[in-house]
Amino acid sequence: MKISLLANSKSPNPGNWALIAGTKALIEETFGANVEFDIISWDDITFTDSLFRKDFFQRVNISDLFWVVGAVTFNGRDEHVRGGCRLNLSGTDLAQIKTPMVLGGVSYRYWSDNIYPRKEELTQLLNNLTSKDSCLIGLRNDGTKKWLAELTSIESQNIMEFPDPGMFAMRTPKGINVGRSGLIFSLNNEDSDSRFSAAEERENLIQAMALACLSFWENYDEYVSFAPHSFEDYELFSELITLLPKRLLHQRVSVLPIPPAHESKKFYEYYSNARAVIATRVHSMSPSIGMGIPTLIISSQDRLINYTNKIGIRRYVIEQSKIGKRDGVIAEELIRVLNSCSSVYEEFTRVRQEQRDAASLLLDRVKKMLHAT
Asked: How far apart are CA 232 and CA 354, in angstroms?
């Protein structure tokens, strides 16, 4: 069996590796380990002119299944003149895809309250997808389904919620007492003008993160490792380190490298050894939960709140906008999570299994769809 995966396969953001690895794990568990994957670089298309060309359709049509990996897709860009999103396909384009098609956990990221650019084109794309024979749409369970229905007024039995594939990127969760050490945290500086409502919110977050580092060092003589997922994140790290004691900065701080795309698994192997994680990104949070790592989540987006509500871990979330000046809430919640690490590990292991079971709802329909074609 051959499956074409449309994915951000050349991106240095390790979260894209987690999406690909988790998707492949789910597919192989469903269809067997002998699946052949043809990975098509979605980022090549996006960073050229967002148009899908003849060679793309040729590759897809010699596969048994075309699978769109669950990346941010609905992001509101004027250049998406055909499909209103990164899946920038017109009706004529879609008619060229002859193989069965699945969207596997795609999501939205649109900050503005203004009118969504190319809304008509996006609505037409969804109409075309839902009326297409042998097409299933899995939307990440972070509120994307509700957001998209409100935007386009389109609902269909072929539109389903689907767990974030990144949760399944690392296939063997490590036991809570097996060589774990150190704190890893991400700081998300992408779309910073929208992510931080004011300079004060940004300053409050940095100060609270610094207090969390100090609190961790009071309890553990271990490294704090900063984990940038994008080059923009270094700016926040450079501001944070000015607030840390010089001795600890030089002796107990490390920065994980942003790896080449083909080496991104190493990034999550660092995560797998951590005592705890403070996550401000979906793909810092989701793989960590999948590995059972005690994780504290800082949210700057409704979709992250929606996601944690959906999977039942809302109590591990701190809303970024509610962090005050020199607020110790991150430090306090971090120690609380660390003091209950065994129960957190058991809870996250259960959550992973529940999400795996939820993924089967779409995967079972994919099997039936392929059997019928």
From this structure: 34
Report pLDDT digits (tens) over 63-115: 999 999 999 999 999 999 999 999 999 999 999 999 999 999 999 998 877 78
Residues whose CB falls within 8 Å of the CB of residue 104, separated by 6 or more in sequence, listed in order: 23, 26, 67, 68, 69, 70, 138, 162, 165, 362
What b/e sequence results for 245-280 when a residue is b if at least 16 CB atoms lie within 10 Å of its CB, and e otherwise? eeeeeeebbeebebbebeebeebbebbbbbbbbbbb
Question: 316: which DSSP letter?
Answer: G
Tens of pLDDT, residue by residue over 237-287, are 999 999 999 999 999 999 999 999 989 999 999 999 999 999 999 999 999
pLDDT tens-digit readout, 279-328: 999 999 999 999 999 999 999 988 899 999 999 999 999 999 999 998 99
What is the C-alpha to C-alpha distance for residues 9 and 16, in angstroms, rounded to an integer?
Answer: 7
Question: What CATH architecture applies to the domain 2-168+354-372?
Answer: 3-Layer(aba) Sandwich (3.40)
Q: Is 185 helix (H, G, I), strand (E, B) or coil?
A: strand
Please say whether the beta carbons of 73 and 122 come within 8 A: no
Q: From the options 3.40.50.11810, 3.40.228.10, 3.40.50.2000, 1.10.150.130, give the CATH code of 183-339.
A: 3.40.50.2000
In DSSP notation, 112-142 reads -SSPPTTHHHHHHHHHHHHHSTTEEEEEETT
Tokens of 334: 């971090």
